[in-house]
Amino acid sequence: MSRVKSKNTTTEMAVRRLVFGMDYRYRLHDKRLPGRPDLVFSGRRKIIFVNGCFWHGHESCRYAALPKTRVDFWRAKVEKNQARDRENIALLEANGWKVLTVWQCELKNTERLANRLYDFIEHE
Q1: Are 74 and 56 a contacting pair, CB within 8 Å?
Q2: How many Cα atoms within 13 Å fall on the side-chain side of residue 18?
Q3: What tens digit of pLDDT does each residue of 80-114 get?
Q4: Taking a C-beta distance cutoff of 8 angstroms, is the pair 86, 94 a contact?
């Protein structure tokens, strides 16, 4: 697992290209904020987390299926990630940030994702 990246993943890079292509500018992985969000729009007080479906246990997603070996280990790991995500989002929202989570599987339909990102950045 030491080779699993936490920053600049393929999914994150795709979302970053999409947002940058929409002419939005952002900061990356702000260490001062809980959870080190992937994209931070400071002036708008908005944050985007880009999550892998497997690692963060995206419900009802085929990419989030646990391996058939060491099921207890993987279940505990994913549940711990989910608990940490909930805690970080609650802290951010308590401090006045709006938070959006983008899932890996959402990249299958980039047009829909682009609309969702635009609506979040501009309107929510």
Answers
A1: no
A2: 23
A3: 999 999 999 999 999 999 999 999 999 999 999 99
A4: no
Number of domains composing the chain:
1
Domain holding 69, by residue range, is 10-122
Helices (H), 1-124: 10-21, 53-56, 71-94, 110-122
- Paired residues of 48 in beta bridges: 39, 100
- Please tell me the pTM assigned to this model: 0.92
CATH code, domain with 79? 3.40.960.10
Answer yes or no: is 3 within a domain. Answer: no
Pair 11, 104: CB distance under 8 Å: yes
Q: Find out whether 38 and 49 touch, Cβ atoms under 8 Å.
A: yes
